[in-house]
Amino acid sequence: MDWLEQELAHALARQEPAAGFDRRVRARLYRSPRWLALAATILVMIGAGEAWRQYQGQLAKEQVMTAMRIAGSKLNRVQMQLKGTEQ
């Protein structure tokens, strides 16, 4: 074996965990659900806020387009009436 293989074998060799490792892991597992629930709640709130903002933007866009169509049709009617009076 060359030196790299020896280093890898040494680094990947089975080792016994440090004293108290099991207790520390279990303590973290019991704390995780609270943090996960809080993080999930925050993500849902941010997502819902962004979805609401997009919905409001789309609604405003549709209202502007409707107003432009109404104004365009009224302007077209006025132009047609002016052309009729010019002849």
- Structure annotation, total helices: 2
For the residues shown, what is the average pLDDT? 90
What is the helix fraction of residues, given as a range? over 70%
Spatial shape: elongated
What letter string, H or E per element, gives the SSE order?
HH
Beta percentage is under 5%
Q: How many β-strand stretches?
A: 0
Find the structural class using helix and strand composition.
Answer: mainly alpha
Main pleated sheet: none
Distance between the termini: 102 Å
Unreliable parts? none
Alpha carbon gyration radius: 34 Å
Task: Write a short abstract of this structure.
The protein is an all-alpha fold and 87 residues long. The protein contains 2 helices and no strands.
Walk me through this protein's architecture.
This protein has helices at 3-11, 21-86. The longest helix has 66 residues, at 21-86. The N and C termini lie far apart (102 Å). The protein has 87 residues and is mostly helical.
List keywords for this structure.
87 residues, mainly alpha, 86% helix, elongated
Task: List strands and helices in order, with pairings.
Elements: H1 3-11, H2 21-86
